[in-house]
Design a protein that fits this description.
mainly alpha; Four Helix Bundle (Hemerythrin (Met), subunit A)
Amino acid sequence: MSDETAAASVAASEGGEGHAGHEHHWEVSWAPLATVAGIVFLIPLTFASWFVYESTLLAVAFAGIGTPLLLAGISKWVAEGMSQKALVPGVAAIGLPIFIISEVLIFLSLFASYWMMRLGADTWPPEGSAEMPVLLPLVMTALLVSSSVTIHVAEVKMDRKDIAGFRTWLYVTIALGILFLGCTTYEYSHLVSIDFVPSTNAFSTAFFSITGFHASHVLVGLGIFIAVAIPALAGRIDKTFVTCASIYWHFVDVVWFFVVSQIYFW
């Protein structure tokens, strides 16, 4: 055996030992698939079954499968984000923008449908529509803008290793988000009481679809913040996860400006 061949054999042997000592583990999780299956396929099929096909059985079936699947996926994903370190650096930085872009396209499709109805109608809103409030959406806007400020302050506290301050401002953010959903619930209950429901006319369908879809994003954001707050009680904070949650929340806040301007004041 030549010296070069012997050297190659030794290098291969050392390389094999190195691989054995540093075995690569693939990031495998069923959470993304479960979450997407629930929120993209089964939950929309629930609403389609109820409002379009008027089938209670199908609606219950899709909701009964889709809702637990969505909650399980989110719970698993959140748990992984808080308990595991990323095996591939920079994955969150790549994945989050892709996710945000997909969400922008979904909201854009809803707004495009609304614009087509709005611009193609002889009179708008159609007969039977409820008068939209002016003060309430402004209050809701103030709540969401304030929540963007408070989560930013929480991030500053996190960067300064001030865990107590981080927790305080995170709690304030959660409280503001809950108040926002409280306003949505109050508004919906009032509109339903005067018989303004999704099936009333084209405007009511667009109103409940767009505002409801946005409210669902607020609810998901609150769930993520709560998942961040629980480990923070023990002093555990995942910076990457908090940053992604904050960016998502800012995105939801920006979308609200389009909802307010198009639905309430146009």
